[in-house]
């Protein structure tokens, strides 16, 4: 599900999508590091929202603190000009993790 909101000036695009962690070991150190590296490749500010807590997707420590084990759900939110591309790429990456044997 995508929720898209735009700031009245259309300069601030916000895209949110609910994600479910599907790989067997969850978002542990190795895939979390790759997730952060990919997130840092976008200009958008990307946040993981789990319950009432918000975690920066550009911080490995924050992503690990989100404690996203297999089956966990969270909201992935991006704010900025390339927000939609960021969310789409990160969601695809999470699916790729599921399909990898080592992650």
Characteristics of this structure?
alpha+beta; Histidine-containing Protein, Chain: A; 3 helices; 103 residues
Q: Can you describe what's shown?
A:
This protein has 103 residues and is an alpha+beta fold. The chain has a single domain, classed as Histidine-containing Protein, Chain: A (2-Layer Sandwich), CATH 3.30.1340.10. 33% of the residues lie in helices and 29% in strands. It contains three helices and five strands; from the N terminus they run ββαββαβα. Strands 1-2-5-3-4 form a five-stranded antiparallel sheet. A hairpin with a 6-residue loop joins strand 1 and strand 2 (13-20). The chain is globular and about 35 Å long.
In brief:
The chain is an alpha+beta fold and 103 residues long.
CATH superfamily: HPr-like
Main sheet strand line-up: 1-2-5-3-4
Radius of gyration: 13 Å
CATH architecture: 2-Layer Sandwich
Distance between the termini: 25 Å
Which CATH class applies here?
Answer: Alpha Beta
DSSP, total strands:
5
Largest sheet: 5 strands, antiparallel
The CATH topology? Histidine-containing Protein, Chain: A
- Number of helical elements: 3
- β-sheet strand percentage: 25-35%
Low-confidence stretches: none
What level of helicity do the residues show? Answer: 25-40%
Shape: globular
Count of separate structural domains: 1
Structural class: alpha+beta
H-E order: EEHEEHEH
Average the pLDDT over all residues and give the rounded result: 90
């Amino acid at each position: 599900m995508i929720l898209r909101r735009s700031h009245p000036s259309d300069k601030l695009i916000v895209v949110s999508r609910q994600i479910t962690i599907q790989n067997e070991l969850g978002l542990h150190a190795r895939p979390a590091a790759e997730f952060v590296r990919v997130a840092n490749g976008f200009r958008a500010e990307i946040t993981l929202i789990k319950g009432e807590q918000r975690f920066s997707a550009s911080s490995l420590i924050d992503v690990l603190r989100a404690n996203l084990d297999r089956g966990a759900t969270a909201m992935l939110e991006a704010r900025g000009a390339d927000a939609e591309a960021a969310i789409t790429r990160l969601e695809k990456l999470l699916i790729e993790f599921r399909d990898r044997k080592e992650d």
